[in-house]
Write a structure and sequence with these properties.
- This protein is an all-alpha fold.
- The protein folds into 3 domains: 221 residues, MFS general substrate transporter like domains (Growth Hormone, Chain: A, Up-down Bundle); 110 residues, Leucine-rich Repeat Variant, CATH 1.25.10; 99 residues.
- α18 packs antiparallel against α19 and α26 crosses α28.
- The longest helix is centred in the first third of the chain and has 43 residues.
- The C terminus is likely disordered.
Length: 582
């Protein structure tokens, strides 16, 4: 919407009078409420479990300290944000006296600023989110805030004004909203309404009001642009804020670990899973040893892995002795964050182990090690191919497919004509990336898919989904009418991997089926989806009715696979707050 407005303003500001343009644009926006009934209605979340009064008072006091810190951030950020907008207008009015040129300049700044924001979100936001914690993102935001203001104050031209306006009013504003949303969702339900009122209703207007008073006083005495020096000094002092926020934020998360609200504890555990929060590792280890909740323990293992705490590594490896596949799979994933010798040795021992671990756990360890060490896994995978067990051989072929190196071709090629259907399918998947063997891989997949044996056809359908062969979409859709439920699930899984919207919805509905076994098989398949297709599925799930979402949430909690990020999307669907309003 913003980009469209900026483009229209730029295109039509010349031939059309500004007032006429804004009347037309206002009419378009005025029609927007007509579409409001089409939006999904917010549903009342289920009541939280009662808590003891003492625990409630302690949690509230800690939450209020963090809320005051966030209130100051929203107040100060609004002051700086619209202060730069004030300076931008001052510079623009001084340089461009013609009304149409001025309107066109505003349009260009809005259009290119928002285009930059979209490109950043598409290309860089995801990778950076894995590196920057909430605290570090706050520090980067404050440094960028100071840099934009300082540049505009040092060299006030149209170019620097446009850069500062785009950086603060568009880019940093969206970043600030993205930071406040996950932090705000950590507040207990009893003070969440107060947080909304303070951070949305009081902080921004207060910052605007103080800015108005300061700007008016300066304009009446020493000149309007003197506000730039106030903003520079203020934003320089504001660089201290990230350290204050970090201390309050960490203290609050540690207090939440002692809460009697299981949802609040779980959210705090997930929030602590960041590399710069290693000081919280002892508290998480203590909770891991004392808790009997399987879901909480799995998230504790994953958070300790994400924070890469060396002190926690022996405790994590010891969890392999637990007889729960969900915990063992979580440990495998947690070890993947360390990338050191003890973690790799534990994975290697797990690959060879025949005691107390399932084939699924050994397979996950093999795939993870292959992804970490690359071609150095070749001797181990060659040994696995020499085993007599077809499942171990299929696992080795699947891991070899991850390497995508020419050296794997001699090892994989003989299995293209194997009598075992899964070995043939995995060999075709591994050879498909190589141009010289692609036709042979296609022929094998076609033979598997056209087979009259249902299990052999399943192998072909699996290979089509893994390689995302779009040419089979129509054939797969024709199989959806099959009366055999398992074949229908396999076909829906392959079509969902292809990203076809209609079939993604069908697969998503399958996760809420009454049949627990069928839903578990679908979740197992979903855990192997490529990330884009996986998120499409959960976007569809988030639009389902509340009973279906709760049923899927319960199954995610019982699943041995890690769906913690997707679970957060569903849990917070009705609780998202601090959305952009400017």
């Amino acid at each position: 919407g913003y980009m469209a407005g900026g483009w229209l303003l730029n295109e039509f500001s010349g031939p059309m009078q500004a007032l006429d343009f804004f009347l037309i644009w206002g009419g378009i926006l005025g029609a927007a409420p007509v579409f409001l009934p089409l939006l999904p209605r917010q549903e009342t979340p289920p009541p939280s479990r009662p808590e003891s009064e003492a625990d409630g008072e302690a949690e509230t006091a800690s939450a209020l300290r963090l809320l005051k810190t966030l209130f100051f951030f929203c107040f100060a950020f609004t002051f700086f944000l619209y202060g730069v907008d004030y300076l931008f207008n001052t510079v623009a009015l001084q340089s461009l006296s013609d009304e149409n040129r001025l309107a066109a300049f505003y349009g260009r700044v809005a259009f290119f600023s928002l285009l930059g924001v979209l490109l950043f979100q598409a290309l860089m936001a995801g990778p950076l989110s894995k590196i920057l914690s909430v605290d570090r993102s706050m520090l980067v935001l404050c440094i960028a805030l100071f840099a934009g203001i300082a540049l505009l104050a040092w060299h006030p031209t149209l170019a620097t004004a446009a850069f500062a306006e785009g950086l603060l009013l568009y880019f940093l504003d969206s970043k600030a909203v993205g930071l406040l949303q996950p932090v705000g969702n950590l507040f207990p339900e009893r003070i969440r309404g107060r947080a909304r009122v303070l951070l949305d209703g009081f902080a921004p207007p207060s910052g605007d009001l103080v800015l108005l008073l300061v700007a008016t006083a300066l304009a009446a005495t020493v000149g309007a642009f003197r506000l730039a020096y106030v903003l520079v000094v203020g934003s320089l002092a504001f660089l201290i804020f990230p350290w204050v926020f970090r201390r309050r934020y960490l203290d609050y998360l540690l207090d939440c670990l002692n809460s009697s609200d299981p949802t609040l504890v779980l959210n705090a555990v997930q929030a602590l899973g960041e590399p710069d929060k290693k000081s919280a590792a002892p508290a998480l280890i203590q909770l891991l040893e004392s808790s009997g909740d399987l879901l909480l323990r799995r998230n504790l293992i994953l958070s300790l892995g994400r924070m890469r705490s060396e002190a926690a590594l022996p405790r994590l490896i010891a969890q392999f002795s637990q007889p729960h596949e969900a915990l063992q799979l979580a440990v495998v994933e947690a070890l993947g964050y360390f990338r050191n010798y003890p973690a790799l040795f534990a994975l290697y021992e797990l690959m060879k182990s025949q005691d107390n671990v399932s084939f699924q756990v050994r397979m996950s360890a093999t795939r993870l090690m292959t992804g970490i060490v690359g071609r150095k896994m070749m001797p181990l995978l060659r040994d696995a191919l020499a085993e007599d067990n077809p499942r171990i051989q299929a696992n080795a072929l699947e891991s070899l497919a991850l390497l995508r190196r020419q050296e794997i071709v001699p090892l994989v090629l003989p299995y293209l004509n194997s009598e075992h259907r899964r070995l043939r399918a995995n060999a075709a998947i591994a050879l498909y990336p190589f141009r010289a063997h692609r036709e042979a891989a296609r022929k094998t997949i076609a033979e598997l898919f056209r087979s009259t044996d249902p299990l052999t056809r399943f192998a072909g359908i699996y290979a089509i989904g893994e390689l995302r062969l779009a040419e089979y979409a129509a054939d797969l859709a024709g199989l959806l009418g099959s009366s055999e439920p398992r074949q229908r699930r396999a076909v829906l899984t392959a079509l969902a991997k292809l990203g076809v919207a209609e079939h993604v919805r069908g697969f998503s509905r399958g996760l809420a089926e009454e049949d627990d076994v069928a839903a578990a098989e679908s979740l197992q398949a979903l855990a192997r989806f490529p990330p884009p297709s996986r998120w499409r599925v959960f976007e569809e799930v988030s639009r389902m009715e509340a009973p279906a979402r709760r049923r899927i949430l319960a199954r995610l909690d019982l699943s041995p696979f890690d769906f913690s990020q997707e679970r957060s999307l569903l849990v917070n669907r009705e609780e998202l707050m601090f959305l952009p309003k400017r």
